[in-house]
Amino acid sequence: MVREAAAIFVPRTDSPARSEPLPVRAALLGLGLLFLLLVVVLPLAAVFTQAFEKGIRAYLAALSQPETAAAIKLTLLTAVIAVPLNTIFGVAAAWTLTKYRFPGRNILITLIDLPFTVSPVISGLIFVLLFGTRGIFGPWLDTHGTKIVFATPGIVLATIFVTFPFVAREILPALQAAGNASEEAALTLGAGGWRILFRVTLPKIKWALIYGVILCNARAMGEFGAVSVVSGHIRGVTNTVPLQVEILYNEYDFVGAFAVASLLTLLALVTLVIKKVVEHWQASLNDGRKA
Amino acid sequence: MKVRVEGLTKQFGAQGVPAVHEATFEVAEGGITTLLGPSGSGKTTILRIIAGLETADDGRVLVGDEDIIKIPARKRGFGFVFQNFALFDHMSVRENIAFGLRVRRAAKAEIQSRVDELLGLVQLEGFGDRYPGQLSGGQRQRVGFARALAPHPKLLLLDEPFGALDARVRAELREWLRRLHDVTHLTSIMVTHDQEEALDLSDRLVVMDRGRIQQVGTPTEIYASPATSFVASFVGSANVLNGVVQQGRAQFAATSLSVPGNISDGVKVRAVVRPHDIRIERASAEQPVLAEPQRSIGCIKRIVDLGTHVKLDLGLTTHELVTVHVSRREFETLGLLQGESVLVDLDNARVFVEDYVV
Amino acid sequence: MAVVWRRRRVGTLPGFRLTLGFTLLYVGIMVLLPLAALVLKTSGLTWPEFWATIASPRALAAYKLSFGGAFLAAAINAVAGLLLSWVLVRYRFLGRNLVDAIIDLPLALPTAVAGIALTAVYAPNGVVGAILERRGIHIAFSYPGVVLAMVFVGLPFAVRSVQPVLMDLDPQIEEAAVVLGASRLRTFVRVILPVLTPSIITGFTLAFARAVGEYGSVVFISGNLPGQTEIVPLLIVTKLEQFQYPQATALAVVMLAGSLMTLLAVNFLQAWNRRWVSHGS
């Protein structure tokens, strides 16, 4: 009885000739799971245990602070601007890179990947250098009374910069794998560029696009380093949700910090669930096509 | 090396048709035994069970007198050649061939000389330092053979070895394999769905369909005396007619043939006749056309000149169509044209009584 | 005529000029302009000043921590990434889908949240931290904590680089090795691993690049003592807050140069691997 129960946890393989003996499999699986537990699962759990440490009432109180509400509003505003813009860019860039061959294509790919490799702090720094009071455009902006750095526009710009590769990177491999055959067929049938885009190409990669947008959104809402540099930390005005978390934490308001953090964590979890669902649908769609 | 397979049975998944059902046959010692059948017939499964790459639900694999079915694959000492070559792309040709010898911790000098010997055997001298990515399909498969043969295997297993190659290379390598085998005399078991290849190379043929063995014999036996209509139609080209037993004879739409043995009326039968076994004559008014029951009238629907012989598509009455091959000379003598009627004699047809479920 | 000529060279689908133009404009504004700013601003320093900034003991300690820690974290991730990919691709077990999804958490979770969560678990009063404190092992507010946070952010890259390659691995080369008599270990080391090596290197590189510049996840758990547990991004932020723009920029340039050199080195490593080990497989 116990043996059967334990058997559910045993790692099985498909092919006996090509696999390790059971003790080795169990050990490898155990090691992998232990690693994940220590590095990912425990911190994830900690967010919620800390947030609810003083009970639900304290949790809800923390969330209903006016500064938190302002932070949420700013974060949403940023996402609403950054994500659509980056989606349009992502589609344009992926289209350019996969449908044509031209000199400098590789350089373009590297440039698009740049925000990934650059520290978010440096990204923020760049905007301060450009638009801060001592920046390149600083004096010009001052005379026109516009503030970018230490104000909302700066936060939005920095977020756009840091998250712009996400959509492009997600749909690039999908576009490459899908090939040009359908688009060329549409061309021979007389379709023009926009029609091909919306009726042929995008539907083909719809799952990758959806996931790219959702991931971009999660990153845009959660961006910390770049926004931290650019925002000036002015409470209630230029605080996004991640910055609010930092402020509360530094004031030792742990329940508050984790409560606000839990919102973003839930968003992250939802993102992961959507990814799994999308993968599942994509797989069954492929099976359906094959059958 | 005496090799025998007894009662092998394997089922994939809990339901459905068994992939292999009670397969029993003996492998030709020192010769090439071929498992022939369409896809899904179970032939590859049997080969993989013999190799140890699959487990069997039931049955034995006897080498000498020993049942080796419990021995893990790596200890069996057989050579295996894969359809898609399965070469180690990151290793040179030399290193690929040496792999089995390295596993046995052979001495460096021994490995060197054996690899050289094999490169010579497969006619790839000088290719030792190349990489699989730099070779053509035919060359890669020859490396596959060399690799399998290097560690002196007791048995050679070939899984559709020429399946991934194009037609011309396939024909060349078929020739090459025959000559190789004449040199090595290594007991070999080959799997293929190409009946021409099977007839060409085999010393013994095992014909399979849907997991069951249909017939075992030499190519000649199988071709000339097929045991079932499946074997008759799968090995060599054939016309198949469906009919029913009536009044003690096999009744087809236009002809009637004698039935082997005492079969009761109403039983379904099949007649199989090879295109070059059908005799045709000009139909003339005087001939008592249907005096002999195995004769009927056919109308020439199509004539195709195939160079060495001429193919005629004939429509017998109702919906039966047969293909007939006649030699060039005979065709010219008969002087036939499309649309003409001829006398068709199905004397050479074999009649099979069996449960046929398509 | 000219349009037709260009089309033939580039491809037949419409929209080339529009899409390329838009892409270049976006990239130009969002990438090249800011990069130019970096270069321009550094020129506000004289050479001795530049050198003093980037070679100060504090800066050197920060480089050691950021680059050294990132390297160690990426190495850990390379091994863990291989292990987890193997387990996910080769085995079937209860909760496999859940594990697969969880690996992406560091990608979707905001860095600040990761930072405070890791600190909560590994601080002296945290769930794991307490157990380790008793044995005298400090994680939070010291070097191991920094490395741990870097491991966290780099994990998805390490796993997702190897996983697809492992899934596409031809099972028949393993079978060939088995029939030739190879043990499981030998098969893994001599047949499977060489095929996986390029993707492992890629995973290492991505994890490293990510970890070097990481700010949010590290800054909470590291303790931020200058000269000991201060990472380069934090040093840059500190300079910025003091309005020392040129100094901050100088440090940023060093970081970028360092990352660039690492990327080049790894590209070189990949090319070397392709040529001498895996032979374009």
Low-confidence stretches of chain A: none
Approximate shape of chain A = flat
| Helix/sheet category of chain B | alpha+beta
* DSSP E strands of chain B, number: 20
CATH architecture of the largest domain in chain A: Orthogonal Bundle
Strand order of the largest sheet of chain B: 6-7-8-3-9-10
- Which chain pair shows the most residues in contact? A-C, 104 and 94 residues
- Overall pLDDT score of chain B: 88
List the total number of helices of chain B: 9
How much of the sequence lies in strands of chain B comes to 25-35%
How do the helices and strands line up, and which of them pair or pack?
The complex is a heterotrimer of chains A (291), B (358) and C (281).
Chain A: H1 2-7, H2 22-51, H3 55-63, H4 66-99, H5 105-117, H6 120-131, H7 138-143, H8 152-178, H9 181-188, H10 193-204, H11 206-222, H12 225-231, H13 241-250, H14 254-290
Helix pairs in contact in A: 2-14, 3-14, 4-8, 4-11, 4-13, 5-8, 6-8, 6-12, 8-11, 8-12, 9-10, 11-14, 13-14
Chain B: E1 3-10, E2 20-27, E3 32-36, H1 43-51, E4 58-63, E5 66-67, E6 78-81, H2 93-103, H3 108-121, H4 137-149, E7 155-159, H5 167-184, E8 188-192, H6 195-201, E9 204-209, E10 212-217, H7 219-224, H8 229-234, E11 239-246, E12 249-251, E13 256-258, E14 268-273, E15 279-282, E16 295-305, E17 309-315, E18 321-327, H9 328-334, E19 341-345, E20 350-353
Helix pairs in contact in B: 2-3, 2-4, 3-4
Chain C: H1 2-10, H2 16-42, H3 47-54, H4 57-90, H5 96-102, H6 105-108, H7 111-122, H8 127-134, H9 143-167, H10 171-179, H11 184-212, H12 216-221, H13 232-241, H14 245-278
Helix pairs in contact in C: 2-14, 3-14, 4-9, 4-11, 7-9, 9-11, 10-11, 11-14, 13-14
Structure overview:
The complex is a heterotrimer of chains A (291), B (358) and C (281). Chain A has 291 residues and is mostly helical. Chain A has two domains: 21-51; 56-290, MetI-like fold. Chain A contains 14 helices and no strands. The longest helix of chain A is centred in the last third of the chain and has 37 residues, at 254-290. The radius of gyration of chain A is 24 Å and the shape is flat. Chain B is an alpha+beta fold and 358 residues long. Chain B has helices at residues 43-51, 93-103, 108-121, 137-149, 167-184, 195-201, 219-224, 229-234, 328-334; strands at 3-10, 20-27, 32-36, 58-63, 66-67, 78-81, 155-159, 188-192, 204-209, 212-217, 239-246, 249-251, 256-258, 268-273, 279-282, 295-305, 309-315, 321-327, 341-345, 350-353. In chain B, the strands form four sheets. Chain B has a six-stranded mixed beta sheet with strand order 6-7-8-3-9-10, with helices on both faces. Chain B has a five-stranded antiparallel beta sheet with strand order 13-12-11-14-20. The two termini of chain B are 39 Å apart. The model of chain B has no long low-confidence stretch (mean pLDDT 88). Chain C has one domain: MetI-like fold (Orthogonal Bundle), CATH 1.10.3720. The model of chain C is unreliable at 1-8 (pLDDT under 50). Chain C has helices at 2-10, 16-42, 47-54, 57-90, 96-102, 105-108, 111-122, 127-134, 143-167, 171-179, 184-212, 216-221, 232-241, 245-278. Chain C is mainly alpha-helical. Helices cover 79% and strands 0% of the residues of chain C. Chain C has 14 helices and no strands. Chains in contact: A-B, A-C, B-C. Chains B and C meet through β6 and α2 of B and α10 and α11 of C.
